[in-house]
């Protein structure tokens, strides 16, 4: 068995120093061929993945956050072979949470060696694939506004300022939502289209999602006052926001279309795109094998 470990040295909060000795120690008495590489830039993990798959490495382990996992997964999809492994060392690690992969690197490495494989869905919005969640509305704007402050302040402060700025300037979105034979005009706070359960570093936006059920799970939160939002927002962390039945609706569908006359921000697993008009969400026609 040949395993490649790809470490993103800039992911998370500086824990990666410790992982190389952990890997070396674990493999002392195991007869696997393995290689450890560090990424040097954005998208490097995808290119390295493809290089090792060409050299017949079978398992490619992403060591980093959801961005690193997504790049390794893209390489695997492009080559149409290989198994994804995850050692969560990012900031959010939302896919690892959905898959119940331990957040401790040592325990996550044991899972890789246990080799228990799950076939999971890949979702897409337009041409962009995602494993966790794509969304429009206040959450996408928080991601966008947090980026503005990230250059100036560290982690939590940048996020807090991003939330405050968003609360101050956010306007509800008037959109048309279409799924199955249903078409609705709604004024929404957000629409989250989920493949996994979590986004934003542990917010359980879609508690009912199953990542291998060939369905998208959609959470629609209607426009509510900012005071009510202050009560609802904390409940998303433990997936209890469904109790606010008047404002929160969950749907399962194979695909979903959102139409917006105005320009809106679209969050795709933490990347922000600007969109206007029709946005289509689907499942990608192939799954990916992941060690869980
Ligand atoms: N050597 C590098 N230098 C700069 N950026 C890199 C490097 N290697 C990878 N990246 C980029 O770092 C970004 C962040 O990585 P990642 O998402 O894994 O970590 P994170 O943001 O801390 O975690 P999460 O997404 O789980 O919150 C990715 O977009 C990736 O392309």
Automatic annotation (TrEMBL):
Its cofactor is Mg(2+). SUPFAM superfamilies: NAD kinase/diacylglycerol kinase-like. Keywords: ATP-binding, Kinase, Lipid biosynthesis, Lipid metabolism, Magnesium, Metal-binding, Nucleotide-binding, Phospholipid biosynthesis, Phospholipid metabolism, Transferase. Residues 1-129 form the DAGKc domain. GO terms for biological process: phospholipid biosynthetic process. InterPro entries: ATP-NAD_kinase_N (IPR017438), Diacylglycerol/lipid_kinase (IPR005218), Diacylglycerol_kinase_cat_dom (IPR001206), Lipid_Phosphate_FormReg (IPR050187), NAD/diacylglycerol_kinase_sf (IPR016064), YegS/DAGK_C (IPR045540). The keyword Protein biosynthesis does not apply. GO terms for cellular component: plasma membrane. SMART domains: DAGKc. GO terms for molecular function: ATP binding; kinase activity; metal ion binding. Pfam families: DAGK_cat, YegS_C. The keyword Kinase applies. Belongs to the diacylglycerol/lipid kinase family. This is Diacylglycerol kinase family lipid kinase. It comes from Senegalia massiliensis.
């Amino acid at each position: 068995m040949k395993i490649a470990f790809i470490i993103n040295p800039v992911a998370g909060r500086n824990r990666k120093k410790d992982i190389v000795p952990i890997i070396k120690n674990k493999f002392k008495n195991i007869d696997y061929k393995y290689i450890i590489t560090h990424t040097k830039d954005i998208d490097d993990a995808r290119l390295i993945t493809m290089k090792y798959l060409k050299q017949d490495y079978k398992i490619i382990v992403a060591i980093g956050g959801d961005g690193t996992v997504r790049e390794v997964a893209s390489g695997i999809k492009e080559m149409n072979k290989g198994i994804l492994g995850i050692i969560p060392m990012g900031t959010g690690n939302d896919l690892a949470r959905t898959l119940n992969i331990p957040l401790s690197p040592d325990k996550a490495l044991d899972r890789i060696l246990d080799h228990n494989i799950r076939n999971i869905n890949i979702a897409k919005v337009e041409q962009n694939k995602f494993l966790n969640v794509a969304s429009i509305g206040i959450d996408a704007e928080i991601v966008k506004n947090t980026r503005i402050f990230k250059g100036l302040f560290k982690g939590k402060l940048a996020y807090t300022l991003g939330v405050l700025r968003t609360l101050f300037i956010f306007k509800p979105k008037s959109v048309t939502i279409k799924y199955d034979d249903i078409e609705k005009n709604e004024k929404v706070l957000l629409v989250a289209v989920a493949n996994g359960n979590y986004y934003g570093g542990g917010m359980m936006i879609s508690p009912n999602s199953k990542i291998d059920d060939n369905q998208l799970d959609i959470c629609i939160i209607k426009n509510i006052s900012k005071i009510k939002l202050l009560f609802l927002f904390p409940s998303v962390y433990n997936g209890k926001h469904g109790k606010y039945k008047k404002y929160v609706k969950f749907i399962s569908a194979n695909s979903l279309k959102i139409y917006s006359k105005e320009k809106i921000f679209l969050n795709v697993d933490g990347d922000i795109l600007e969109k206007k008009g029709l946005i289509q969400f689907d499942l990608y026609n192939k799954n990916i094998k992941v060690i869980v």
